[in-house]
Amino acid sequence: MARISHIITxxxxxxxxxxxxxxxxxxxxxxxxxxxxxxFVFYPTLPFDEASQACHQDGASLVSVNTGEEHxxxxxxxxxxxxxxxxxxxxSGLQRGDxxxxxxxxxxxxxxxxxxxxxxxxxxxxxxxxxxAHLVYRYSDEDKRFGWAWASRTQSLPYICEINRDxxxxxYQRKRDFSYGNPSPNPGAWxxxxxxxxxxxxxxxxxxxxxxxxxxxxxxxxxxxxKWYKDYATDREKLVTATVRYxxxxxxLTINDPVEQEDPGTFTCVAENSVGKVFSPPVPxxxxxxxxxxNTKPGSRTAQLYQGAVIDCSPPSYNPALVxxxxxxxxxxIRPEMNPHTFLSENGNLYFSEVQAADAAxxxxxxxxxxxxxxxxxxxxxxxxxxxxIQLNIQGEDANEFGPDIHDDFPTVFPQQPLRGKEMRIECLxxxxxxxxxxxxxxxxxxxxxxxxxxxxxxxxxxIADARLEDSGTYMCTVQGPKNVGTKNITLNxxxxxxxxxxxxxQHLDVGSHLTWVCDAxxxxxxxxxxxxxxxxxxxxxxxxxxxxxxxxxxxxxxxxPDKHSGMYECVATNDHGTMISIAQIRVLSFAPTFDKEPIExxxxxxxxxxxxxxxxxxxxxxxxxxxxxNGSPLGTSGRAQTFPNGTLVLQGLSTGDNGVYxxxxxxxxxxxxxxxxxxxxxxxxxxxxPSNTQVHQNSTAFLPCQASYAVNRTDLIYAWYFNxxxxxxxxxxxxxxxxxxxxEGLYIVGATYDHEGFYECRATTVYDNVNAHAYLTVMGPPxxxxxxxxxxxxxxxxxxxxxxxxQAEHGEITSLYRIHFSSNYNPQWRVLVDSISAYTTTFSExxxxxxxxIQANTLSPGTRYQFRVTAxxxxxxxxxxxxxxxxxxxxxxAPIHAPEFVSGGGGSVGMLRVWWLPLAPENHGGYGLYxxxxxxxxxxxxxxxxxxxxxIYGDKPDRYGFVWFHQVVGEDYFYTQYDVKVQAVNxxxxxxxxxxxxxxxxxxxxxxTPQNVYAEGLNASxxxxxxxxxxxxxxGMRGQxxxxxxxxxxxxxxxxxxxxxxxxxxxxxxxxxxxxxxANDDYWVDVQVFNTAGLSRPSGRAYMNTNYEAPLHxxxxxxxxxxxxxxxxxxxxxxxxxxxxxxxxxxxxWYWPYTDDxxxxxxxxxxxxxxxxxxxxEMDKIYKLRVLATSDGGxxxxxxxxxxxxxxxxxxxxxxxxxxxxxxxxxxxxxxIVLFSAVSLYQV
Length: 1245
Hints:
With 1245 residues, this protein is mainly beta. The protein is 5% helix and 46% strand. The strands form 28 sheets. Strands 12, 14, 15, 18, 19, 20 and 30 form a seven-stranded mixed sheet that branches. The chain is globular.
C-alpha cells in the first residue's frame, strides 16, 4: 500500500479551467483520469453497503463505468497495482430483479460482452443466483485480464470510489464545528444539544428479583435533564414518576420489587436542554419465567449397541432463553469434550455418536434461565430446573463398521437467524464408529475468519465471534471415520439490525441555505426510517409549514430558518432485528462576516521571483462575497494576480513592485468586514504557509502545511521536517510523508498515535538561505490509564476506591465513564466489577484532584483479598488502557453473603432423604471454617417445623462432579415423600443466607402392588408381546415412581424354576412390552414385575404364550428390474415355497436405497402375494441397491443378494472381476465409473 501511495501522489498546484473556475487536483491517494478522481481502497475490505457508505462519507460514490476509455483505465490500473490478482473490486453496478443500474450516478447498466470475463449466458445465470447481485472487477486466469463479474452483497471486498473533479472541493472544504460562529473560544460557552453516551440494555426480571436499574447518560451543554417514559410514542405512553417502588435520579430509574403484572413494558429515556430534546432507543423490560418439568416420568429410550441415539430434553415453557446441561444417574455431569461419543447441542438434546454399554443409565436434563445476548437477567438466585430421569436402554450386539452418517439435525446454526455483531455457533454431529474427526471449510469461495473463529467439543462446534455480513456463505462439515468420510453443507445468511457505519454529522448551516441530509444505515433486511425533530415525528406529508421534506431516509430543507429548523434531529432506522438511532444537531447561523479567528497575517513575506498564496477565511453566515484590494484599490483578476471564489489570492513572479497593503473584504446581507496584511517582497526565501497547532484523532491523518516563496528561476529549494528537534527519516517511518493538500505542500501524519504528539518544525532551504516554522500536534483519543488507584477505606464489604487522572491524561476530550476491574487471591483473572460509572458521580469537593467510587456492600465477599484497576473512557473514543493494579486489600472476615446453588436431591435407600448442592467457591467463603447446614420439613405440611443438621457438613471433599452430599434418615414410613429443603453456608463468623427452597423426594420403597391381567401372544417366530394393567399406581401401592417393568419368561416345562428364568426390562410407563430371542413354535410362561429405584415388586400371575412358525427360510430368486416410467421401475421375482416348520407366506417386501448409503437407510415397500411390484419416487442419474424378501406371521424371511439398478433398469456386473457385463438402456457412461468403483463393496451388506 505504501508503494501505491507514492505512485498516486497528487499534483501540487490548483488548476484554472477556461472559465476561470478554481478546480482542485485529486487529493492524496486519489488517481486522476479525465474529469474524475478515483480512489482504489485495498483495506479495509468491506461488504457492499459499507463500501458505498465509505465513499459517500467523502462526498464520492462507488465507481460507475460509463465509457470504454474509463473501463480500460480501471483495468490498466488494477493490472499494474493489484499484483496478487486475487482481489475482486466493488463498483456501483447492481442487478435487482430485472433492473440493472449504476447506483453511483443512476445510469442504466448496459452490458458490454467484451467487458465480462464470463460468457453472457453464464453471466445472466450467475446474476440471478443472488437476491441482489453486484458488479465487481475480477481477474481471470484464463483470459489473463481483469473484467466484469457478479458478487453477492455480503462479500467483504476492496472497492473503487469516484468523484467529479468539479466536486473535489468537498474533500478540502473547511469543516464547520460548534466553534464556527461562536465568539468565545471556550467550549463551555457553546450551546450543544444532548446526545446519549450510555443507555442500559434490555432487562429480564425473574424469580425473586429485588431491583431493576435502568440508566441513561447524555452529553450536552447546558447539562441535560432526564425523564423516563413507559411505552413512549404510543397511546399507552406514561411518564414515570417517583413512587414507593420507583425512584428517578439523574437519568437513573430504579424499580424495587418488580411485579410481573405492572412493570413489564418498553422504557425510553428522554434527555433535554435548552437546545433541544432527544429520546433513547427503547429499553425492553419484561418478565422471565421457567415452568416446572412434568412430574410424569418420561418414557424410556431404547438404542442399539454401537449405533447412534438421541435423548431430547423437552423443556417446559419458558421465556426468554435457556442453557442446557445433562447429568447421568444424577451423579455425573455429561462433558462432551471429555467423551467423544456424546454431544450436547444448543437445542438441548443429548446425542450419542455410538452408544456404548456403559451408557445405559438414567439421564436428567438441567435447564437454567438466561437472558438473550445484549440483555441482562435480574434475579436474586439462578433459576433452573431438573427433568425426571429418562432411562436409556441398550440392546443388540456388536455392529459392523458404519458411518460417519451426519445426523439430519446437522449441520445447524444457533441462533437460527445469525445476526451481525453476535456470536454464531455452528454444530455438526455424525453417527458412526469412533474415532470420528471433524473439520470445517467454506465451499463458496469465502474463507473462515480464523481470527474470530474458535472450535470446541472436539471440533464439532465452530464459534464465529462478532459475526459480519461477509460471514454469510456455505460451510461444509467434514467427518472422517475409520474407513469413510461424510460431508454435509449448511448455507448461512447473516442478517443485521440497523447500524450506522457513518452516523449523522452535526450541521452548521447558513440561513437560507439548502440541506439534503441522508441517513444511511446498513441493515438486512433493509431498514425503514423515521425522522424526528426535538422528539416530534416529521411525517412525510405534514411538514409543509416547517419547510421540511422527508422521503424515506432523506430529509430535505430548502431554505434553512433558525426558528423552524434549529434543534436536535434523530433518524430512527428499524427492521425485524432491532432499532438504531443516529442523533445530530442543526444550527442555522446568521451573522455578519468576522475575521476575529483567522485574520490576514499583518506581515506577509514573499521572495523576488517566487509565488505566493494568501488565504482569506472569514466566518460568515450566509457565505460572503470576497474581494481583494491593494493599497485601497481593487485588485484585478488577470495577469500575475489571481483571485478565486473561495477567497484565495495567488501572486506569481513576485517583484518589489508588489509591495503594499493587501485587504480582503467579506460582505453578506448582514454586514461587511475586512482584514489586511502588508506584503514585503524580499530577496530571500520566506514561508507563506506555516504549520499551526493542530489536533488529530488517534489513528487518523493530520496535515501540517509548509510552503515557501522563493526565486524559482535561480535556485532550488528543499524541505526538511523535524520532530522534537530530531530530523525525520521518512524511509524509517512510513506513517510520515510529504505531499499536497488543496494545492498546499505539507507533512502528512497517517495513523497518528500518542507517540506522534509533539513539536514539528519545517525548514525550507535554498543554496542562499533557509527559513523555518514550527507547530504542536495534539493527538486526541481515549484517556490514559488512571493513576494512584488505591483503596482509601473499607468498612465491612463496602470499599471506597480512589484514583487520579493526570494533567495530560485526557487527549482532547473529557473523561465521561470509568470501569472497575477486580481480581482476588483465589481467582487471579481480571473481571469487570462495575461498568459505565458516570464520571460526574466520582468527583467530590473535598479532594478535587481525586476520583472515588464506593463499591456497595455485599458486592464483594468478606474474607477475600482483592486488587483493583480502573479504566477511563471518553464519549467519542471509548475506553483506554487499564491502570496499574492497586495494592491488595483483605476484607475482614464475616459471615458468607452468598447462598449455595443448584440444590437438589432424591434417591438413596428407603427411609433416607438425600440432598446435594454446589459448594461455594473459595472466593465466597467469607472467612475460615466454612461448613454447611441443611434444613428440611415436609412439603405443604404447616404442622411440620423446620429441622436442621446438628453436625457440620464440610464442602472440602465434593464428589468428582463438584457436588456436596447429605443423607438424613426420615424413617421407612416416609418413603417417597416431598420435603422442602434449603441449604445454608456458615463460617466461624456466622451464618449466611439460605438457598432457595427446593422440593426433594425421599427415597422410594419396594412396590407392594403387582401388575394384573397379564396376557401374552406371539408376534413372530422369535418374539412375543406381553400386555398388563397396574391397578394400584398410588404412593401407597407403588411407593415411588414407576421406572419400568421386568418381563420374565421360561419354557413350559421349566415351571417353578426361578433361578433359570430369563428376563428383559422395559423402562417407562407403557403397559405392553416385547420379548425377543425366543424359539419358533414354542410354548412359554411369562409374568411381569413393576420396579422403581428401590427394586422389583412381587411377580404377577403367569400367562401362557406360544410363538409362531418360522419365517421363510429361502429368499426369492430371479430378481429383475425394468424401467417403468420417469421416476419408477418394475421389479419382478420368483416366489418362495414353505415347508411344514415355516409359516405360510403372506406377501413380499422390497428394500431399496442409494448405493452410496447404508442399508439402514433403506425404504421398505410392502406387497401382497404377488411376484412383481412398482418402486417409484426414484431420481435420475442415481444408482440404487435393492433386496427382495418374503414375509409371513413368522416375520421377515431371508433377503436376496443386492441388485444394482437405475431408472433405466438393472446394472449387471461380475463380482469377481468387477467387469460390467451389460448396461441398462438408459444407463449413462458416467454411472459406469461409479459402478466399477463401488462393485468391490456390493456383497458387504
